[in-house]
UniProtKB/TrEMBL annotation:
The lineage of its organism: Eukaryota, Metazoa, Ecdysozoa, Arthropoda, Hexapoda. One of its GO terms (cellular component) is cytoplasm. This is Protein pelota homolog. Belongs to the eukaryotic release factor 1 family. Pelota subfamily. One of its GO terms (biological process) is RNA surveillance.
Amino acid sequence: MKLLHKNVDKDGRGTITLMPEEAEDIWHAYNLISIRDNVRGSTIRKVQNESATGSSTSNRVRTILTINVENIDFDTQACMLRLKGRNVEENQYVKMGAYHTLDLEVNRKFTLSKAEWDSVSLERVDMACDPTQNADVAAVVMQEGLAHICLITSSMTLVRAKIDQTIPRKRKGNVQQHEKGLQRFFESVMQGILRHINFDIVKCVLVASPGFVKDQFFEYMFNQAVKTDNKVLLENKGKFLLVHASSGFKHSLREILADPAVVTKMVDTKASGEVRAMEAFYQMLQTEPAKAFYGPKHVMMANEAQAIETLLISDNVFRCQDVMQRKQYVALVDSVRESGGEVKIFSSLHVSGEQLDQLTGIAAILRFPMPELEDENEDEND
C-alpha cells in the first residue's frame, strides 16, 4: 500500500489517500473502512442522453464520486472490496443522495475520510504501508490424494489451489495402480506449486504431511526437475522445508507454524507470532487457569487491575457496527499498551485468528493470577 496524502487533526478528524498495490492491500482497506465513513474514488457510471428528436443513447463514463458508506462487501477469494452508499458531493452525472457502488481495486487510489481516526486505524495504515510487513511464505499441506497450496502473508492465509484426487488403495496385486495414482497426484501438486508460487518473492516453502508423503513428494518433484531440467525448482531447492502435519487440511497450518524448525525460519513473520501467542495462551489455560481469560467482560476487568501482560484480539471485533463498542475495544488496546502490556491484533483470515474468533475474539494472558475472575465465572454458571 502506498500512502499518497495524510491530513489528520489532533482531534482525530481527517482524510488519508491510499493506493493499493497488491491484493492484500484490499484486505487492509476492508479493515480501515467503516460504515458512515466517506470514501472518494474513481468509478464508472452509465449515463443516458436524450437527443432533440427524443431518441436516447446510453454510454459509460468514468467519474470521481464521494459516497457515505452504508454497506461493505469483501470477497476473500478474489480480494475485491465493494462499497455501497449515497453520493455526498456534487457531480454532473450523479445526483446528491443517489445510491452508487464503488469497487476498490489494485492500483486505483481512494481517499478515506473519518470523523475520528483512532489508534487502531492509524496503526493499520502504518502496517499496510510498511513494505517489511509482507511474510514471504508458501505452504503445501498434503496427505495421499489431497493437497492445499497456500500463500501466507502478514494479514491472511490464501488457499491458492486445492488438489483432490482418488488414489487406489495399496493392496496385494494392486501396488502398480496405487503407484501410478500417487505419481499422477504428485505431478498435479508440482504443477500447482509452479503455477501459484512466485519464487522471486517467496523465501520459504513449507511442505507438510502425515507419515512419509512429504518425503515421497519431495523426492518425486526433484527427480522430475532433474529430468526436465526445471531451473526454477532446482535453483530454489534450499527454500523447501519438510514438516510433519496431522492431515492435509488447511487447519493443520496452525501446528505447522508452531513447529520449532518453522519458527526459527519464520521468526519475523506476523503469522508465526500469532500462532506462538495462541499456543502460550492455551498452555497457560492448562497450567495456570487463573492467569488466562477470554471474553470481553473478564478481559476488561483484568485490564482495570492492570494485570494484562499479552492481549490477544481479533481484527473482527473492530469491524462491529456499534461505534461505542469499537471505541471500547480501541480504549482497551491503548490502555494495555500504556500499562506496559503487549497487544497482538490477529487477522481473522489466519487459522490462529479463526481460532481466536471461536473464543469470542478477545483473550488475555495475565501478569499475576486473578482467581476472583474464576470465582465470578462459577457464580454466573450457578
